[in-house]
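Quick one, tokens below:
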């Protein structure tokens, strides 16, 4: 009897489909409200927009840091997927890079940066994995354009990502959503400046991940 009990297959518990949908709705609502209202938006307002109760939100995310981490990982994962789609394009390599940059800007990751407080675990394994995936894919997208002779070779992946974050952030004192109409125009001006052959030498050197983290603790 004991042997039979020990050899019985273990039952694996999987989240119900409605539970997964609720979690996705919470993350989507949180991302939208963080972009619109900043990092201190009340969690009960996020639950209300997601169409779930407060208990459901806290069951999925026990505190604000857990929810922020999931939102940031979600944005980075979607950015990585955009890079993968760019790599799957079979046409012009620089056009694929342009498609990636405009899609990445729409994720509004720059608006999420202020959410990362001093208590936020920036080295959480989930965040590290998402960050490394994005870094690797962006380098591959850019490397393909460099190999094709279309992208200047003195620009690094973090030069690109920092510029996208800065150009997609609305100017201080302006309405966040109304400022969106300028983002893609300014991004295209920036992209045109990345084309090879370069018209001038850039000061300094390509930004590295360590330099970025030292100058911006939230990176």
């Amino acid at each position: 009897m004991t042997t039979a009990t020990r050899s019985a297959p273990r039952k694996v518990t999987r989240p119900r489909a409605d539970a997964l949908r609720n979690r996705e709705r919470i993350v989507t609502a949180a991302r939208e409200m963080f972009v619109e209202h900043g990092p201190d938006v009340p969690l009960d307002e996020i639950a209300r927009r997601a169409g779930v109760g407060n208990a459901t939100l806290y069951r999925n995310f026990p505190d604000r840091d857990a929810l922020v981490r999931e939102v940031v990982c979600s944005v980075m994962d979607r950015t990585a997927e955009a890079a993968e789609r760019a790599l799957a394009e079979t046409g012009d390599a620089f056009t694929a890079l342009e498609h990636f940059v405009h899609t990445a800007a729409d994720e509004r990751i720059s608006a999420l940066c202020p959410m990362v407080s001093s208590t936020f675990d920036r080295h959480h394994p989930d965040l590290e994995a998402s960050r490394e995936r994005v870094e690797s894919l962006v380098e591959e997208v850019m490397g393909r354009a460099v190999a094709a002779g279309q992208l200047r070779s003195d620009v690094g992946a973090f030069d690109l990502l920092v510029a996208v974050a800065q150009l997609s952030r609305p100017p201080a004192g302006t309405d966040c959503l109304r400022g969106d109409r300028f983002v893609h125009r300014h991004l295209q001006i920036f992209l045109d400046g990345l084309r090879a052959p370069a018209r001038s030498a850039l000061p300094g050197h390509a930004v590295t991940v360590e330099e970025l983290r030292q100058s911006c603790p939230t990176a």
